[in-house]
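tokens incoming
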């Protein structure tokens, strides 16, 4: 089906809104889902055609995943996408990320690197710069809070063990877990990661706030220092 037609000219069961009512949102294509949110197109282009342009704008990833990487300025380059529609699209990306994080949070178990990685995956895997997060736990391994300690460059995260210990003190933590991302998508730790983790483990031991794990987030994969027997 060509979407150069106006939506009103399409058969009712092929219009995204009506199609959703009739068959459910799961039957809509990515372009149709986005078109329902955009609601209207522009002169000469239907909302579906406009949505299709958005989905092909991503440089790193096309489709819905690419939306998260698009800036307001990127979106507003498309004829028919003004500030309001750009905000709507950006909110879709943020909403999807938060839903995924909330769902992962239901299964979160700080004894399990799998569930920790799943919890932080959507929050961190799309980031274009490295981030270091310190997660703080109480005596029962229950979540006290987390704190972004550093936002680094594409290739490094500038942080010292002192910053992590101070964050743990602020939260009155008994244990801590480090989580950071690799924008390359490959979670294999670098030599710097290995040395830094050792320094944090030693600093935590000195103040009696043990480092339970350091998890490196890649793209749909992770590396756990605890699982690999590298914390000792």
């Amino acid at each position: 089906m060509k979407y150069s037609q106006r939506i009103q000219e399409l058969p009712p069961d092929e219009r995204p809104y009506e199609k959703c009512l009739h068959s459910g949102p799961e039957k809509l294509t990515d372009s149709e889902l986005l078109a329902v949110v955009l609601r209207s197109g522009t002169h000469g282009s239907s909302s579906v055609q406009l949505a299709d342009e958005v989905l092909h704008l991503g440089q790193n990833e096309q489709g819905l995943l690419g939306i998260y990487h698009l800036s307001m300025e990127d979106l507003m380059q498309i004829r028919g996408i003004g500030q309001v529609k750009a905000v709507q699209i950006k909110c879709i990306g943020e909403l999807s990320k938060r839903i995924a994080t909330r769902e992962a949070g239901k299964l979160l178990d700080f004894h399990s690197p799998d569930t920790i990685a799943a919890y932080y995956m959507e929050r961190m895997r799309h980031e274009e710069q490295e981030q270091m997060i310190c997660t703080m736990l109480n005596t029962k391994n229950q979540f006290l809070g987390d704190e972004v300690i550093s936002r680094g460059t594409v290739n490094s995260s500038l942080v010292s063990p002192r910053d992590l210990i101070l964050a743990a003190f602020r939260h009155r933590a008994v244990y801590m877990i480090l989580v950071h991302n690799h924008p390359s998508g490959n979670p294999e730790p670098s030599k710097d990661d290995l040395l830094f983790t050792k320094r944090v483990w030693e600093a935590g031991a000195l103040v009696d706030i043990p480092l339970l794990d350091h998890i490196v987030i890649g793209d749909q994969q992770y590396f756990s220092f605890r699982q690999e027997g590298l914390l000792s």
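note: Residues 54 and 75 are 7 Å apart (CA to CA).
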